[in-house]
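explain this:

___
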Amino acid sequence: MRASVFYNIVTRGGGAEIEELLRLLDEAGIRYCGIGGQAVNHYVEPLVSLDLDLVVATGQLAAAEELLSDRYTLRRFPHGLNVNLGASDLRVRVQIAPRYGDFVDRAVPGDVLGIPMYVAAARDVLWGKVWTAQNSSPRPSKRQKDLVDIARLIEAYPDLRTDVPADLLRRIEG
């Protein structure tokens, strides 16, 4: 079974919906990249997640929001924009925190479970995970997943280990 077929089954159609959302962004010339767990999946052996985190190029967020609101239900939060794709179980969030702004400039063409998309550079994906793992607000299981994603990245890319703060390395290495 192809990865994209598997992903579509697990998310109840989310793979096709992601492809449609990304096609809309591409056709409108809106630059974006995947961050978070799905971006980690581009760089290492994938784990299934029902979340897709994206960041849009600085200066294109208003255009992206207008474009997406024509087709999807959007809900704005202080640091993000949730995009309801419809019937699938997939959750899409566009991060709008300024610290992600440069990620799009360093993004690379990628493949996430058979879906072509731009993904943040490995170091940027790592930093996004570090920021999230250091945040005290997510639920404990989310912080643990972020630590696992950091561990997976530094196992595959040992040179990134020096970018991980010592307190997180201690938590990862026990």
Remarks:
- The first helix runs from residue 3 to 10.
- Residues 110 and 117 are 5 Å apart (CA to CA).
